[in-house]
Amino acid sequence: MKFVKQIILTVLTLISTILTLNAQSISGAWHLSEGDKSHHLFFQDGFYFHTVHEGNKFLMSEGGKYSINDKTLKAESLFNSNDSTKIGTTLSIPFSISSDQLSLQVEEGNAEFERVDNGTAPLAGVWRITGRMQDGKITPIHQTGTRQTYKLLTGTKFQWVAIDPAKKQFSGTGGGTYTFKDGKYTENIEFFSRDNTRVGASLSFDGKLENGDWHHSGLSSKGDKIYEIWSRIK
């Protein structure tokens, strides 16, 4: 009986530790309000995106890859819509997480973000398009050159970016909230760098996960039929 109690205690301790680590994970979506400005900060599968907008006015977006060493966030910039000289640089930012608050020690002082979600959902991940339906057949898409298009999804938020890190070019981005239920994927746009009249719009598509890939079909914002296949970045 004593041995059984020890096993139960060990298991409960392990579960408690796992829950604590999950609660303190930086993964997912975070938000900071600065007057009329909204800061969106997403961490998912080694990538981070940070976007600022004021109402429907897009202000800036930057992001790249990140890693964590103890309590320091190391962020390597792959794109920056306002300052291309920062692309390729790495910042080391001390941080802490308490409950659902993320504190980043930046040059201007502490930036306090509130958690939106923990980055857990069937579509949560960083994706790249790898196939498209053409003439009734799926045609593989092989990325050439250094131009890159990513779509990052947390538990409830999404953002896509079109960039070329080698040329230090930023082509565009958009994002907001999404839902994925009963085979329907719906995006609600909160910011859009190219056309702010798109803010507030909702787009719905058919969606399914098949062999780890995301099949995405419906009508584009221009009304064209699309059938795309997206694969997670590993």
How far from one another are the termini? 46 Å
- Overall mean pLDDT stands at 89
Into which percentage range does the β-strand content fall? over 45%
Radius of gyration in whole Å, from Cα?
A: 20 Å
How many DSSP H or I helices?
1
Report the sheet with the most strands, covering strand number, pairing sense and barrel closure. Answer: 8 strands, antiparallel, barrel
Helix content: under 10%
Biggest β-sheet: strands ordered side by side in the sheet = 1-2-3-4-5-6-7-8
Q: What is the helix/strand order?
A: HEEEEEEEEEEEEEEEEE
Low-confidence stretches: 7-23
Helix/strand structural class? mainly beta
Shape: globular
Overall number of strands: 17
Structure notes:
The chain has 234 residues and is mainly beta. The protein is 9% helix and 61% strand. The chain contains one helix and 17 strands. It has one helix spanning 2-23; strands at residues 28-34, 37-44, 47-54, 57-69, 72-80, 90-98, 101-106, 109-117, 125-134, 137-140, 148-153, 157-164, 169-181, 184-192, 202-210, 213-219, 225-232. Strands 1-2-3-4-5-6-7-8 form an eight-stranded antiparallel beta barrel. A hairpin with a 3-residue loop joins strand 11 and strand 12. It is globular and about 55 Å long. It starts with a helix and ends with a strand. Mean pLDDT is 89; it is low at 7-23.
